[in-house]
Design a protein that fits this description.
It is a single chain. By secondary structure, this protein is of the alpha/beta class. It has two domains: 270 residues, Aldehyde Dehydrogenase, Chain A, domain 1 (3-Layer(aba) Sandwich), CATH 3.40.605; 193 residues, Aldehyde Dehydrogenase, Chain A, domain 2. It is built from 15 helices and 21 strands. The chain has a seven-stranded mixed β-sheet with strand order 15-16-17-14-13-18-19, with helices on both faces. A six-stranded mixed β-sheet has the order 10-9-8-11-12-20, with helices on both faces. A three-stranded mixed β-sheet has the order 1-5-4, with helices on one face. Helix 3 crosses helix 4. The longest helix has 25 residues. The protein binds nicotinamide-adenine-dinucleotide (NAD). Nicotinamide-adenine-dinucleotide binds next to helix 7 and helix 8. The site of nicotinamide-adenine-dinucleotide has 28 residues, from helix 7 and helix 8.
């Protein structure tokens, strides 16, 4: 059954969109029409921005952190009540396997919200401090109107990273979902419309990159939080720089999973492969460079290949499926281009690389492993955003750390070992925003997440994530 929506949640009410344009969302598995939803136009963004400015001076401005925390909890519960539906919608719109969607797309998103609710409860929005002469009151006040720009790969999760932080801080937010995966944002809007938020605190304006540009440069917007490609992030950052506008950028990654020589391969291999291939490899924090001791390279490659060959590729709605289709034909073509580049550059293609048999109606690429990869080669340096992993040999720990850090990106990473202390010590040397030891948790839903280098600027989640939606001001108190 095709989902049809005709209205947009703008300024606290379901509004008739300013344009007739729609997004027809097709399943990446078989091309069937999943949904037809309205596309917002610049006039809808303008209305959302005006409503957000009004909310800054309305009852929302008077709420305490604890009251906003309560609102975030209501939102989380409302989404949990519709978790199966949301997981199904996201699986249908962008191809995330059902096995992953319920937790990875939806419950992980509500965990993010629950984390922000806790932060809001206990956050010190004001504190008295000594000044040079007399006391001062240091306040953390909402940054103003925020704009959140969201990609298609984990649409609800990334939306909640921005929405939860803005709600905790008390900043109204205008969210722009992507054209490829806008549908779950309408279910989110249903829940938002029911939890009793004042008008203008949240508006949702699905649209394309041009609408994103309009939002980023909008005169009533004070802060932009962008998640997406490094290329688009550079443009957003440039606009914000020119306008002296606060800006958080969460961009691409090429994270390294380092297998130490004492790792237990039986437990490491399935978890590390999941950290690289989950969501069909379309995860910014995916562990796509597998660093292995050179002496154990072939043994580890054999173990990885054995596991990859057990993965079930197919219809993402099937509970058996491990790897579904890529979001679009364009994304599949891009990934296949990288496979050709890897072969041309002399990497060993040890499994996958082609299109799986019998799935011609969808945008599928087999889970693919390259071995003996040079860290300087294109497939080791550029974000592929598909089910393609590279195995790179290292000589010793210092070399492994140097290879992990030798990347334009710096988003996530992992270390695998039976020696906890050794693992924590190596993790401490990896220059990325997140690094896990013996765990496939590549994004921690309650703690700061973000990138070094071209992976972005700023942090989301945790108290640091809330800070990004606050301005700090000093009131000099009378001292006489
Ligand atoms: P994209 O950059 O093409 O688009 C992301 C969003 O930005 C979409 O909503 C799009 O409409 C909008 N947009 C595009 N150009 C814009 C511009 N110039 N101004 C304003 N808005 C613009 O990325 P995508 O293809 O949707 O997503 C995949 C990329 O996102 C990957 O590179 C991936 O690594 C990255 N990503 C990063 C994180 C993270 O937290 N670091 C998380 C998920 C995805």
């Amino acid at each position: 059954m095709t989902i049809e929506r005709t209205r947009l949640l703008v300024g606290g009410a379901w509004q008739v969109p300013s344009t007739d344009a729609t997004f027809a969302v097709r399943s990446p598995h078989d091309g069937r029409l999943v949904a037809v939803v309205p596309q917002a136009g610049p006039a809808d963004v303008d209305a959302a921005a005006r409503a957000a400015v009004a909310a800054l001076d309305g009852p929302w401005a008077e709420t305490s952190g604890a009251e906003r925390g309560e609102m975030i909890r209501r939102l989380s519960l409302g989404l949990q009540a519709r978790a199966e539906e949301l997981a199904g919608v996201i699986t249908d719109e962008m191809g995330s396997p059902a096995k992953f969607s319920l937790f990875g797309q939806v419950l992980a998103a509500t965990m993010v919200l629950d984390g922000f609710a806790e932060v809001a409860d206990g956050f010190a929005f004001a504190a008295e401090r000594p000044g040079a002469v007399g006391p001062c009151l240091v306040q953390k006040v909402p940054v103003g109107v925020a704009a959140g720009i969201v990609p298609w790969n984990v649409p609800l999760f990334i939306t909640c990273m921005k929405l939860g932080a803005a709600l905790a801080a008390g900043a109204p937010i205008i969210l722009k979902p992507s054209p490829e995966a806008p549908v779950s944002s309408f279910v989110l809007a249903d829940v938002l419309a029911e939890i009793g938020l004042p008008p203008g605190v949240v508006s949702i304006v699905p649209g394309d990159a041009d609408l994103g540009r309009h939002l980023v440069a909008h005169p009533l917007v004070d802060k932009v939080s962008f998640t997406g490609s490094t290329a688009a992030g550079r443009q957003v950052g440039a606009t914000c720089g020119e306008l002296v506008r606060r800006c958080t950028l969460e961009l691409g990654g090429k994270s390294a999973g380092i297998i130490l020589d004492d790792a237990d391969l039986a437990t490491t291999v399935p978890q590390l492969l999941d950290a690289g291939l989950q969501n069909n490899g379309q995860v910014c924090a995916a562990q796509t460079r597998i660093l292995v001791p050179r002496a154990a390279h072939d043994e580890i490659v054999d173990a990885l290949v054995d596991h990859v060959r057990t993965l079930v590729v197919g219809d993402p709605r099937s509970p058996e499926t491990d790897i579904g289709p890529l979001v679009s034909a364009r994304q599949r073509d891009r990934v296949e281009g990288y496979v050709r580049t890897g072969v041309a550059d002399g990497a060993q293609l040890v499994t996958g690389g082609g299109r799986p048999a019998g799935l011609d109606g969808g945008h599928y690429v087999e889970p693919t492993l390259f071995a003996g990869v040079d860290n300087r080669s294109t497939i080791a340096r550029e974000e592929i955003f598909g089910p393609v992993l590279t195995v790179i040999g290292y000589d010793d720990i210092d070399h492994a750390v140097a290879l992990a850090n030798d990347s334009d990106f710096g988003l996530s990473g992992s270390v695998w070992t039976t020696d906890r202390d050794r693992g924590v010590a190596v993790a401490g040397r990896i220059r990325t925003g997140t690094c896990a030891v013996n765990s496939g948790i590549i994004v921690e839903p309650r703690n700061p997440f973000g990138g070094f280098r071209s992976s972005g600027v700023g942090r989301e989640m945790g108290p640091e994530g809330v800070e990004a939606y606050l301005e700090t001001r000093t009131v000099v108190l009378p001292f006489a």
